[in-house]
């Protein structure tokens, strides 16, 4: 059994990345994404528009980032890129929409930044759809 210099097995690190990206994505999907998509009419009336691009476009971007991107993350498809909209939405929430929040009030958002920031840096790991399909990147040893 091969271990890294830290004494851990590489497959355990990959399992950790799988757990991190799937659980974080399911949380975003259930808590934020699906409620926005399922209650579109009431959400478009209530959503903040911090960039002044219109409530409809703001909500569509939020649904993209909180429904479509988590599904990509769960599958391990374009994981690093799929993490970016989630990070952007979370940063906007903390820096613009809820800038008066204390650390305690914003702890969920900070945890999302930690989870999806880690996945954006580390990638999906070995357990992803593209690895199962034998994509070129998995044959070159690149972890996405």
Structure in words:
It contains seven helices and no strands. With 144 residues, the protein is mainly alpha-helical. Helix 1 packs antiparallel against helix 3 (55-75), helix 3 runs antiparallel to helix 4 and helix 4 (79-97) packs antiparallel against helix 5.
Amount of helix: 55-70%
Rg from alpha-carbon coordinates: 17 Å
Distance between the termini: 23 Å
| Beta content | under 5%
How many runs of DSSP E, i.e. beta strands?
0
Overall residue-averaged pLDDT value: 90
Number of domains: 1
Q: Per the principal axes of the C-alpha atoms, what is the gross shape?
A: globular
How many helices? Answer: 7
**Ranges with pLDDT <50 over ≥5 residues?**
137-144
Q: What structural category characterises the helix and strand content?
A: mainly alpha
What is the helix/strand order? Answer: HHHHHHH
The biggest sheet, with number of strands, parallel, antiparallel or mixed sense and barrel status, is: none
Organism: Paraburkholderia elongata
Protein name: DoxX family membrane protein
Family: Belongs to the DoxX family.
Keywords: Cell membrane, Membrane, Transmembrane, Transmembrane helix
